[in-house]
Each structure stands twice: as structure tokens, then as C-alpha cells.
């Protein structure tokens, strides 16, 4: 797995990193010296110790053999695997999911992919397997469960605004993409859901800075959520949330009306 610019904050990964640093320093080895002894680059050792990469099973076993730890690092590696679903979620996203369940009004803008709230199982699988094949089944099950919000006894009012490129980017296969678009059309028939599309070729508009979600609650509070390069940010400060609400409204102002958006979705389906 490639290194990240931001460190992982999962407890199992942090524990592995701290133990590695402690055992290495206890025998007085530099990262390069340990890497040379094990056949790994010192940069990889540094990535693991700074929680910017996830150790492989082979690396854990090599550490156990070298330090004679009676399997300590392999047990820590197993714990990382067991909690990997938490590792793979963008920081900020678990808290967002808790808020999403309580929202009475949800506004989603998607620049590159259909929102997880509206993904079909096949579409979600194509996305998830590209990110983390080992945890795909668990993620997909949770994603499908998440969508029950839309048809619950007291569902939120939902606005979904899509950049047209989301419709045209083939995810998985043409059949998978076509079924995803059909699912969007069906969702748009729900009494609590409205879907509109920002036309391709629109030129610059505020949506090009990234996907965005606004959640509104019964007490009048609002939160915003953005995600970029695998890092999720939940914004709660009212003065900042107001700016995101304004950006969403500007984005929505660039979209086709709902009825015309359905026509666009059907037209793209026919082209696939």
C-alpha cells in the first residue's frame, strides 16, 4: 500500500508504529540499519513508524524473527487487518455518518462519483474493490444499509446535485453504469428526493472545487462535510458552514431543473 501524506490515526497502526520504534531504538539501530538487515528501504521503515503506511504481513514476520518477539508484530498486524474497515474510512467520515442519520434535510453535490447514499451494489463494488479489495464486502454491506435512510418511516428531504461527468464516467462497466443511472431515475421518483444535473461544458463554477454535503437538523443547526484526497472534514462552526451552504446554492443554481435533469440522465443511458 502506498504511503499517505497524512498519518493514519487508527489505534492498531499507531501501536505497531510505537512498538517498532521502541524495539529498534532499544537495540540502537537506525532506520537504515534495520532496513538493511531486513531487506527493506529505510524510507519504508520511516513510513511505518510515522503511521503513513500499513505494514505487510511479511514485514511483521520479519520483525518477529529479527527481534525474537514471539509473534508480537504478527499479532499487531492481525489486529490492523481486523480493524481495517476503520483504517480505510476517511478521517471525519464516521462522525459524518452519525450526523447523516439524524438529518432532516440533506444536500449532496457530487463532482466525480455518485454519492454513496445513491450507489447501486455493483457500482459500489467497482469503487470499493479499486480502493480496498479485502474489505469491499463489508463496506458494501454498510453502504447498502446506509441507504435505508431514504425510505425510512421518517426520511429526510434529500437534494442530490450531480456534475454531468458523474453520469458519463463509466465505473465498473457500461452495464454497471447504465444500471446506476436507472437507479438514480428511480430514486428521483421518491417523494422526498430531488435530483438535478449541472450540464457538461458549463465552464468554471463553484462545484469544481470538490464534492460537498450539507446536513440540516431539527434544532436549526447545520453541518458541512467535504472530502479530498482521502481526507474527510466535518465542518460545524456556523460561520464556516454558512459559506458552504452558499456554495451549494451557487452550484445548484448552475444545474438543469429536475425534469430536464431526468431527461439528461436518460439520454446518457441511451449513449452507453
TrEMBL record:
SMART domains hit by this protein: HTH_XRE
Ranges of residues in domain HTH cro/C1-type: 20-72
Any Pfam family hit: HTH_31
Gene3D superfamilies, alphabetized: lambda repressor-like DNA-binding domains
SUPFAM superfamilies: lambda repressor-like DNA-binding domains
InterPro entries hit by this protein: Cro/C1-type_HTH, DUF5753, Lambda_DNA-bd_dom_sf
Example of a GO MF term: DNA binding
Name of the protein in its database record: Helix-turn-helix transcriptional regulator
Native species: Actinomadura barringtoniae
Amino acid at each position: 500500500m502506498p504511503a499517505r501524506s497524512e498519518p493514519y490515526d487508527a489505534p492498531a497502526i499507531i501501536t505497531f508504529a510505537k512498538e517498532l520504534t521502541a524495539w529498534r531504538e532499544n537495540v540502537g539501530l537506525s532506520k537504515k540499519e534495520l532496513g538493511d538487515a531486513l531487506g527493506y528501504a529505510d524510507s519504508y521503515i520511516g513510513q511505518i513508524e510515522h503511521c503513513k503506511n500499513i505494514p505487510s504481513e511479511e514485514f511483521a514476520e520479519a520483525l518477529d524473527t529479527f527481534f525474537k518477539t514471539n509473534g508480537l508484530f504478527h499479532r499487531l498486524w492481525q489486529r490492523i487487518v481486523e480493524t481495517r474497515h476503520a483504517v480505510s474510512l476517511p478521517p471525519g467520515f464516521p462522525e459524518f455518518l452519525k450526523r447523516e442519520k439524524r438529518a432532516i434535510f440533506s444536500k449532496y453535490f457530487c463532482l466525480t462519483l455518485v454519492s454513496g447514499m445513491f450507489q447501486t451494489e455493483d457500482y459500489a463494488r467497482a469503487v470499493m474493490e479499486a480502493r480496498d479489495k479485502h474489505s469491499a464486502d463489508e463496506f458494501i454491506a454498510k453502504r447498502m444499509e446506509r441507504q435505508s435512510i431514504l425510505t425510512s418511516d421518517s426520511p429526510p428531504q434529500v437534494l442530490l446535485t450531480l456534475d454531468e461527468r458523474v453520469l458519463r464516467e463509466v465505473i465498473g462497466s457500461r452495464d454497471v453504469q447504465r444500471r446506476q443511472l436507472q437507479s438514480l431515475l428511480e430514486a428521483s421518483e421518491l417523494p422526498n428526493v430531488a435530483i438535478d444535473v449541472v450540464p457538461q461544458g458549463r465552464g468554471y463554477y463553484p462545484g469544481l472545487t470538490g464534492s460537498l454535503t450539507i446536513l440540516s437538523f431539527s434544532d436549526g443547526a447545520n453541518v458541512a462535510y467535504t472530502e479530498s484526497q482521502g481526507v474527510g472534514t466535518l465542518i460545524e462552526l456556523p460561520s464556516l458552514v454558512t459559506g458552504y451552504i452558499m456554495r451549494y446554492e451557487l452550484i445548484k443554481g448552475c444545474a438543469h431543473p429536475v425534469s430536464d435533469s431526468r431527461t439528461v440522465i436518460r439520454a446518457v443511458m441511451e449513449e452507453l
